[in-house]
Amino acid sequence: MKLFVGNLNSQAADSDLIKLFTEFGVVKSVKLVVDAYTRRPKGFAFVEMENRAAGENAIGKLDNTLFLQQTIVVNEAKPKSGGIKQL
């Protein structure tokens, strides 16, 4: 299950997120999103958990909690809506 983690402290690193989410199950991947030009963090990340139960448990326990001095948002990642817009 892929999770969206928002309102992250700019000092957060992949290793911080792995440590935080491993408490709820196996973390398959972490992707901290950075600006393509400045390389500065955009304040959100995607964490992929091995299974849905682990992801749902993490959402229930971590959403709206304090992490690195900021209240984070954790929910299920939504598929990116892309493509060409119809007129």
Structure in words:
23% of the residues lie in helices and 37% in strands. It is of the alpha+beta class and 87 residues long. The radius of gyration is 14 Å and the shape is globular.
Concise overview:
By secondary structure, this protein is of the alpha+beta class. The protein has helices at residues 14-22, 52-62, and strands at 2-6, 27-34, 41-49, 65-67, 70-76. The protein has a 5-stranded antiparallel sheet with strand order 2-3-1-5-4, with helices on one face.
Portion in helices: 10-25%
Strand count, sense and barrel status of the largest sheet are:
5 strands, antiparallel
Shape: globular
Radius of gyration: 14 Å
Mean pLDDT: 93
Element-by-element helix/strand order: EHEEHEE
Number of helices: 2
Beta-strand content estimate: 35-45%
Q: How many angstroms does the end-to-end distance come to?
A: 34 Å
Number of strands: 5
Q: What class do helices, strands and sheet pairing give?
A: alpha+beta
Strand order of the largest sheet: 2-3-1-5-4
Poorly predicted runs are none
Show the helix and strand layout:
Elements lengths: L1 E5 L7 H9 L4 E8 L6 E9 L2 H11 L2 E3 L2 E7 L11
Antiparallel strand pairs: 1-3, 1-5, 2-3, 4-5
Quick tags:
87 residues, 2 helices, alpha+beta
